[in-house]
């Protein structure tokens, strides 16, 4: 019989999910930790002897070397001022394959639409007008 006193098994999203899937790896993790603790107790005696020898060698090497001059401090580089790119708006007439066929000033939209209609007449592929922004030098 199920713990919720019903004939059907509990849903996996119900309150019995932790009971059904309990973690069992904790015992395995603790065993290697005990072994590592016992080996670490014997190691400090050996390490202390080797660290003393290494410290005396380093001290002798420092005395033998002449003192070096301090390196010049690096200059901080400034961020360059970003040049403002000015854009000018135009009307472009484009084909279906997005190739620009003609370019008109922004105040000449009617001419651009007329050009698109002329290019689209007689069963030719349609052309359309779209705004275009181009960078100007100044």
Which key features would you list for this structure?
138 residues; alpha+beta; 3-stranded antiparallel sheet; 3 strands
Structure in words:
It is a single chain. It contains 3 helices and 3 strands. It has 138 residues and is of the alpha+beta class. The chain has a domain at 87-136. A 3-stranded antiparallel sheet has the order 2-1-3. β1 and β2 form a beta hairpin. The longest helix has 39 residues, at 26-64.
Helix content: 25-40%
Sheet with most strands? 3 strands, antiparallel
Number of helical segments with 4 or more residues: 3
C-alpha termini separation: 86 Å
Shape: flat
What average pLDDT do the residues reach? Answer: 76
Q: Main sheet: which strands, in order across?
A: 2-1-3
Question: Topology as H/E string?
Answer: HHEEHE
Q: Radius of gyration, Cα only, in angstroms?
A: 40 Å
Q: Please count the beta strands (DSSP E, at least 2 residues each).
A: 3
User: What is the beta-strand fraction?
Assistant: 15-25%
